[in-house]
Amino acid sequence: MADMSTATHRTPLTDWTVVVPVVALGALVLSWGRDLPGFAVALVSLCLAGAVLAAVHHAEVVAHRVGEPFGSLVLAVAVTIIEVALIVTLMAGGGDKTSSLARDTVFAAVMITCNGIVGVSLLVGALRNRVAVFHAEGSGAALATVATLAVLSLVLPTFTTTKPGPEFSSAQLTFAACASLALYGLFIAVQTVRHRDYFLPVDTGGSAAGPAAGGGTDGDGDHAVPPTFRAALISLGLLLIALVAVVGNAKAVSPTIERGVADAGLPHAVVGVIIALLVLAPETLAAVRAARRDRVQTSLNLAYGSAIASIGLTIPSIALATIWLSGPLLLGLGPVHMVLLALTVVVSALTIVPGRATLLQGGVHIVLLAAYLFLAVSP
């Protein structure tokens, strides 16, 4: 794994992976709650991009120490927790215009992970070995969890009749929140304890790659020395700093994004798409780098794990936040998005069931993401 051996022995204070998260956090502190001019937005955006790259590096150090699937879990959960904080913060200060922000951001996260991250990872894996190989059992279980959570939280509100519009009643929202937490907890138990082997990378022959596959080998297959506990702990702290900087700086530039979206005459849902793209950037880069190292299963763990965490943690958090948030909470998807979700689930199932994928499957997922992005801009 690139840069892992150096990260094992030293973490110099002048290293860019240490400096960039701290600088990005400083930019967040200086820009928080202020109306930024153009040059300041550009500087904050640069800090945001640097924090994304630093987050990927530190996530790989932690993953190399703890192995798969725990490494993927660390990044997915950390990103999602801070994403939830961003959504709640924006909803608290945005009024009625943010009533659909949770739905738009969560659905965007599902489409980006299940089509964008999965598609790019399969393309990279297939280009390297002609066929991308993974565990159908683990990925299929993850996909089933994503589909169930998405339907319970984003489709059913459109059809329930207790409240008018695409909203849940208080009792229905409570049930959806409890069901989401229960499914998320069950998935984590299966992924990390009972059937951990289903989520470990496999070699090109389709067999389990062994303990080293969880992050114990470098890109050439030679064993790399795992980082020390101290180095992994430092990287975990810097990962959290970097992720806070990513999401916080995304919020700092969000007023500029909202003005740009409004000035361009685009739907307000585009704001949720842009936020999801920014927040998921670390996971996307980490997934692509894993696929380049023949660890497509790790990429799928990141993709589906992020989708599960996005729904499973966001819906309960929003349900809790409605205690003090005013205004409606629109969760139900419209007809176009429901069609895209159904097509994504069907195509994903056909991709996952064989346990092997080619360039075609990756291309199909990329086209589905492109269709979603285009229809978000031009509904």
TrEMBL record:
TM region(s), chain numbering: 12-33, 39-58, 70-94, 106-127, 139-159, 171-190, 231-250, 270-290, 302-324, 330-352, 359-377
Pfam families: Na_Ca_ex
Location of the protein in the cell: Membrane
InterPro entries according to UniProt: Alkaline_pH_Ca-Antiporter, NaCa_Exmemb
Alphabetical UniProt keywords: Membrane, Transmembrane, Transmembrane helix
Keyword presence, Phosphoprotein: no
Domain Sodium/calcium exchanger membrane region: 41-192, 235-376
Biological source species: Streptomyces cirratus
Membrane topology: Multi-pass membrane protein
Lineage: Bacteria, Bacillati, Actinomycetota, Actinomycetes, Kitasatosporales
Name of the protein in question: Ionic transporter y4hA
Key word Transmembrane helix present: yes
Domain of life: Bacteria
